[in-house]
Amino acid sequence: MKKKMSFRRFDAELDTDVCDPYNNAELTLTLRMGFRQINPAAGAAEGSHHDYGDATQPARRIIRWSDSSWKAWKANFLQSAEAFWNGRFWLINDAGTFAFARGATTYCPNVWCRFRLVGQDAATAGSHHTIDVVRLHASENWFGSHSTLYDSKDTNLVHKSTDSRGKAVMQRAHVHEVGHLLGLDHVDVGKPHCLPSGDTNASACYGIADGDMKAAMGSGMQLKPENAYPWREALRSFALADSLTAAFRPVSSAGLLRALQIPIVSLTSVWPARMQRHYPRTAAEVQAGRMIVSRPNRAV
Asked: What is the pLDDT of residues 3-50, one digit of tens each?
């Protein structure tokens, strides 16, 4: 069965039709981005735009978008950002939810996290986020972007920081920004040097330890299991709905207590994230909290 839910930041679809003893359920988050060109004033070929769109900040040289450059930039943005976030996490089913039977065996699928990025004109209805984009002149190597203002070079791999060994930490800014659009904070938010009540855009929030600095939500390109948070939170909604449905199906008196406990299990489950494939779990494996039966290597 395919079930859909809409959230403020994205839409989500859970597909359990793909489940079998070797294939997990798939949870796809779809993010629709509305893009809007920022061009030089009065139809000029060249002009300027201030960093962060703030007139008190330095002005950078920009040029007019052509149809071909706009199309190519959007295609590159969408393809590369979608590829970066798609299919990178598996959520481990510790709730026993979405169970299905094959023969005499009951399985509880884990959930493969998929991602779909849709680009459309900012004037088109239904965008989760709207982004203004400037096209930088070739002479400009930097522009002050923020969450709703990008530049044409944000898709380039650039030197963002330097680790403790003096090695460059590189990042393509747009994959970092898509993480924010999905609901992720900077990697060190919540640590003493980057409290949520302070400036979470301060440099310390991008990671102090090398491992954090190199994270996609820091200054680098490495994903961490905790980056599965948007999928996990969406999945909790699907799991709760599934559990409530199961709880109110007609049951025998002997099974009533178990049925009433299902929503509590759904609320307290962790759905821990992994960054490698895990097969669907049998009911016994869910209860034991570990893999019992080995199965040959097959599809996701």
From this structure: 999 999 999 999 999 999 999 999 999 999 999 999 999 999 999 999
Q: Please tell me the distance from the alpha carbon of residue 47 to that of residue 76, in angstroms, as a whole number.
A: 24
CA angle at residue 213 from 210 to 216, to 5 degrees? 130
User: How far, CA to CA in Å, does 53 sit from each of 33, 77, 276?
Assistant: 19, 21, 41
Retrieve residue 226's tokens. 């905790």
49 SS3 class: strand
| Residue at 300: amino acid letter | V
Report the alpha-carbon distance of residue 133 to residue 37 in Å, rounded: 5
Q: What share of the chain is helix, strand, coil (3-state, %, to 5)?
A: 30, 30, 40
| 248 pLDDT more than 50 | no
Burial 251-269 (b: 16+ CB within 10 A, else e): eeeeeeeebeebbeebeeb
Lowest mean pLDDT among 15-29, 30-44, 145-159, 256-270: 256-270
- CB 221: neighbour CB atoms within 10 A? 17
DSSP-based three-state secondary structure for 52: helix
3-state class (DSSP) for residue 46? strand
Considering the chain, what percentage of its residues have pLDDT values greater than 70? 88
According to the model, what pLDDT value does residue 259 have? 45
How far CA 191 is from CA of 33, 60, 185, 226, in Å, comes to 31, 34, 12, 15
**Are 36 and 132 contacting, i.e. CB atoms less than 8 angstroms apart?**
yes
pTM given for the model: 0.88
Q: Are the C-beta atoms of residues 25 and 111 closer than 8 Å to each other?
A: yes
CA distances from 179 to 5, 128, 239, 249 (A): 20, 14, 23, 39
Q: How confident is the model at residue 300, as a pLDDT?
A: 47
**Which pair of tokens denotes residue 36?**
């809007």
